[in-house]
Design brief:
heterodimer; A: 249 residues; alpha/beta; 4-stranded antiparallel beta sheet; B: 308 residues; MetI-like fold; 12 helices; binds adenosine-5'-triphosphate; binds magnesium ion
Amino acid sequence: MSNSVLEISKLRKSFDTELVLEDISIKVPEHTATVFIGASGSGKSTLLRCINLLEPIDDGVIKLDGEEITDVEINPDEVRRKIGMVFQAFNLFPHMSVLENIILAPMRVKGSSRDQAVDQAESLLKRFGLLDKAHQYPDRLSGGQQQRVAIIRSLALNPRLLLLDEITSSLDPVLVNEVLKTVRDLKAEGMTMVLATHEMGFAKQVADEVCFLKDGRILEWGTPDQILNKPQERQTQEFLKQVNEAGRL
Amino acid sequence: MKNEASREDSASQFNGENSQSKYDFGGKWQPSELELARRAARAKRNKRSAIIAALSSFFVLGGLAVIAVTSPGWKLLSDTFFKWAYGVEVLPKILLGFITNITLTTIATICVAFFGLSIALVRTSKAPALTPFRILATVYVDVFRGIPMLLVILLVGFGVPALQIQGLTNNVLILGLTAVIITYTAYVAEVIRSGILSIHPSQRAAARSLGLNYVQTMRHVILPQAFRRVTPPLLNDLVALIKDTGLVSILGVTDAVRAAQIASSRSFNYTPYVMAAIVFLLITIPLTRFTDRTLRKSIEQQNAQGLA
Ligand SMILES: Nc1ncnc2c1ncn2[C@@H]1O[C@H](COP(=O)(O)OP(=O)(O)OP(=O)(O)O)[C@@H](O)[C@H]1O
Ligand SMILES: [Mg+2]
């Protein structure tokens, strides 16, 4: 197997008095997707925010392509350019059109010329079937379209790693599918990804590895089949049972 | 009442000039008989509403005017406050004074915008190096938002010259302007700060995770959205600022208020004050209408974004 794009060892994170992540160690090889599942409050979002250096950590090491990004001498802005991230909601900048949203970072961060950035943005939009929305403002797009634009925007800096935090949880089921298709396409193209999700079906489709987070620890991990179909731990079984029951309502 | 109003809203939406082209995708659609009947009914109702509004306005307002003019005190009142011939005579002096108010407003607006933004940025930043400035800014805003502006004008206008410091000006115009700027910077800094804080934290996270640094995030993502939200309150402050420049007249600055005061004390007639009021209104009423419209637009925009 190829080298790890992301490698985390013994990560620990607390907020004030609450220990949120403890002893987290994972490796994410190139062109693979690791999916985190777990109850609300188990620490999925916090983990992704730590990887993107949006949250300071208490202890442990995070490496991107073998380089320690938790080093105090490292400029976090430069690290974030190599990592794309999409949140649950409020991703797009409402005062900018779709195109302006996408070209902002290439122009300001990478120093691309406007023409270059627009060319690249248009080819990305075309690839994902959203070219006709280029000049719309975000409030004119459906929720699913907004999330797809957010994904496209995070691709504009050619990131090494994509972090997707419950990007479908504010969408209704029909819109979920179009977003999931976009993620599957990216996976097929070889993007390396870390995801947090409540959609077990989605986890099954894209994950190479599934990690079950319980109270800030990785309780069980393995292939989607191992974790989602034949979980060993009682708590994993209980969680999946709950998710299934909720899904049937 | 409420129901009526909202029905009219939707009616105007459907009766618009371009309703044909707007709903006619591809040029084959003809409104049904039912829809045509509905439109006719709506048009009829709108016409009836307009007639009722016009008639009731005519009788109520006209009635009030007749009562006022025929009342026994009307003669004395109009001689004291509305002696138009005298008003026109003193108008040039008042207008000349008003130029001072406009100048003060213009310079103050520029300075207040600059200092207010700076203080808002200092107060919202989390940089440890700025901690002492953050404390100072907080104290400054609390103090100057909490005392009457007239006191600040008196303190600066009479207090500073009393210090007799070499090189400091005794020019009442500059001292008055300084007092206005000090006070309004505190108001405006607070308005801008509340705008910055009202932007959802995910917007900042989204910008930072694209690799934008703090300054770029502020400049391209946070401030443009914040300014959009605080434009209506800032315009309100501008209207208040224009009026409040009249307060520097207490220092002896010959602005419109002072010019009116001089004219009035000479003749024991209050028409000059009324003239000055009219001059202020000529600027402030259009600005107030404009503010209202901006506010309505910004609310519509926020509704569209599902934020309101
Ligand atoms: N900024 C913060 N300050 C204090 N506590 C926080 C903060 N952010 C998260 N937490 C706490 O950390 C814990 C983990 O939160 P996190 O958002 O990572 O959960 P999650 O697994 O993403 O949940 P969900 O599925 O609901 O999104 C929660 O108990 C939460 O209260
Ligand atoms: Mg979360």
